Structures are given as structure tokens and as C-alpha cells.
């Protein structure tokens, strides 16, 4: 984009923001933070494409003033972390909804492959899950408690171990994006096939509902967030394959930064999933209505935060800027 077109496209927004700052108008901290996010994005673009220009100088000055105003507000400073998850990340993530959709499709296809393979080959589940796990689960089935494996170990130990492992898997899915989207796609494929084989194994034993009632307690958030972490890896991987108008280096740096922001957003959800697995899943004899409430409540939380809320917030911001 030429500099003149860039200025024309954004000047009204900059002028409105400048007036709000210099005239010390009463603008609430949330709106100020929203404007600041847009401004820093414009500044980064100008630094890349219009170095040493007057536009860059103007945006630098405006960003400096905005920074001072935002961080002079003690309440906003104290709530910086909250502001990230409440406003900054959802506004940012809206642009990657299409990538999330394709990530979900890839994971869904992989899961179907795991299902079909297990139904057609009895040995496939052992190849994917390992003999030790399958044999232990078979023993638990004979004892009348198919999900007993989730009741072993201390509650705190299980919580910490599962949470750390899940975060490791998430960062692995992201990190594999450094070798283009193929690396992350492989991580998603592997986990999808494993999921399909896992539940089909219980299906063949006529225990699908019993297993699902227990495992999806923590698995709803856990699996959903692995898909989101895969989205982060694809964002970084796609930045290498499809740099668009950026140089490949600039595109990769932007993709890596955006992907990291996405994967960091998943950490609180993995903590929630780890807590559920450590402290709740072991009580598989809970009433069905309670288990379903936790499962569908977890699903609603993920869908709302990563899909519905970003759309609502983006529309609200767009309406406010007009």
C-alpha cells in the first residue's frame, strides 16, 4: 500500500485518537486500550514500509503520548493482564477465525481416520496407544471400572503433571510451525488419530458413553485448546508459505509473534483442564446431569471466548469508531 493511501485510510482514526489524548477528554480506559492496540499495529506497519517518513514520526509521537496516558492510569496498569484476556486478545484473534476453522477441519479428518482404522484393524489401537495402556484399560474393564486409570495418583500430582504436559503439547504444536504448516499439521494429525482410536476402542467394548461421561469432563477443554494451539502453529507456518505483501522475514516475525500470543492465551484453559482431570474426573460415579453440565459448560466457555466474544467485541469496537 502506498503511503498516501495508508494515511487516507487511517487519518480519521488517528485524529480522533489524538484529540482524545491532547484535549484530555473523558475516554474510558477500555476504549483507550482498544485505540492503542490499533495504533501500535499501524505504527509497526509504518516502520516496515515507510521508514524515515513523516507518517512514522507522527505515529511515534502519538504512540508515546498514548502510552503515557494509559500507564499513568494506575487502575489500568494493575489490570494489564486482565485487559489482555478481556480485550486485547479477543480483538486480535478475530482475524484468525478462518485459520481456526481449517485447523478444526484438519483435526476432525484426522480423528475420523483414527476411528475408521480402529474399526477395521483390531491391532491399530495398540499401535497408537501402546500395549501397556491398552492392557491396563482392559484389566480395568474386567474390574468394572474402565476409567480407573484417571483415579490413580494424588490429586495435586495429577493436576500438575497433566497441566504441564498439556502446555508442552500446545507449545510443541506451535513450535513445529517453524518448519512451515506441515510440522503443525503433523502434530494435529497425530493427536486427532489418537483421539479417534481412543474412543473407538471403548466403543468396541460397548463402553463409549461410560468412558465419554468421564473423559470429556477434562477432555472438552483439553482437546479444544490443543486445536487452538495448532491454529497458532499454522499462523506461524503460513507466514512462511504465504508472506503476501511482506518480505518473508517480516512475515515470519509477525506470524511467530501472533502465534505465540495465541498459544499463551491457552495456558489458563489448560490449567482449568488439569484441575478438572486432577480433582473431578476421578469421581466418575457422579450423576449424569452433573457430568453433562461440566462438559457442555466447558464447551460453551471455549466457543464463547474464542469465537463468539471476539465477534461481539469487534462489532462493538467498529460501531464505536464510526
From TrEMBL:
Pfam family, one: SpoIIM
Keyword Ligase on entry: no
Superkingdom assignment: Bacteria
Sequence intervals crossing the membrane: 100-119, 215-241, 262-280, 286-307
Signal among keywords: no
Protein name: Uncharacterized membrane protein SpoIIM, required for sporulation
UniProt keyword terms in alphabetical order: Membrane, Transmembrane, Transmembrane helix
InterPro entries from the UniProt entry: SpoIIM-like
Classification lineage: Bacteria, Pseudomonadati, Bacteroidota, Flavobacteriia, Flavobacteriales
Amino acid at each position: 500500500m502506498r503511503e498516501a493511501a495508508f494515511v487516507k485510510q487511517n487519518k480519521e482514526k488517528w485524529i480522533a485518537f489524538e484529540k482524545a489524548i491532547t484535549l484530555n477528554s473523558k475516554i474510558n480506559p477500555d476504549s483507550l486500550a482498544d485505540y492503542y492496540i490499533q495504533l501500535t499495529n499501524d505504527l509497526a506497519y509504518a516502520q516496515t514500509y515507510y521508514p524515515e517518513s513523516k507518517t512514522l514520526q507522527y505515529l511515534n509521537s502519538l504512540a508515546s503520548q498514548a502510552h503515557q496516558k494509559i500507564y499513568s492510569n494506575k487502575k489500568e496498569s494493575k489490570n494489564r493482564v486482565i485487559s489482555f484476556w478481556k480485550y486485547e486478545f479477543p480483538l486480535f484473534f478475530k482475524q484468525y477465525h478462518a485459520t481456526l476453522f481449517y485447523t478444526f477441519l484438519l483435526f476432525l479428518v484426522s480423528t475420523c481416520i483414527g476411528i475408521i482404522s480402529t474399526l477395521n484393524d483390531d491391532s491399530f489401537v495398540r499401535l497408537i496407544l501402546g500395549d501397556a495402556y491398552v492392557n491396563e484399560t482392559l484389566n480395568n474393564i474386567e474390574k468394572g471400572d474402565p476409567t480407573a486409570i484417571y483415579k490413580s495418583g494424588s490429586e495435586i500430582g495429577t493436576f500438575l503433571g497433566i497441566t504441564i504436559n498439556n502446555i508442552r503439547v500446545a507449545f510443541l504444536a506451535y513450535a513445529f510451525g517453524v518448519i512451515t504448516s506441515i510440522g503443525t499439521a503433523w502434530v494435529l494429525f497425530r493427536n486427532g488419530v489418537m483421539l479417534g482410536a481412543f474412543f473407538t476402542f471403548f466403543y468396541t467394548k460397548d463402553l463409549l458413553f461410560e468412558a465419554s461421561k468421564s473423559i470429556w469432563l477434562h477432555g472438552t477443554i483439553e482437546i479444544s485448546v490443543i486445536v487452538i494451539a495448532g491454529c497458532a502453529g499454522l499462523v506461524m507456518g503460513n507466514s512462511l508459505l504465504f508472506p503476501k505483501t511482506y518480505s518473508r522475514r517480516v512475515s515470519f516475525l509477525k506470524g511467530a509473534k501472533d502465534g505465540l500470543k495465541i498459544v499463551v492465551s491457552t495456558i489458563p484453559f489448560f490449567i482449568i483442564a488439569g484441575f478438572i482431570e486432577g480433582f473431578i474426573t476421578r469421581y466418575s460415579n457422579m450423576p449424569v446431569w452433573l457430568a453433562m453440565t461440566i462438559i457442555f459448560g466447558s464447551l460453551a466457555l471455549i466457543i464463547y471466548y474464542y469465537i463468539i466474544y471476539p465477534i461481539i467485541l469487534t462489532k462493538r469496537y467498529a460501531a464505536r469508531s464510526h
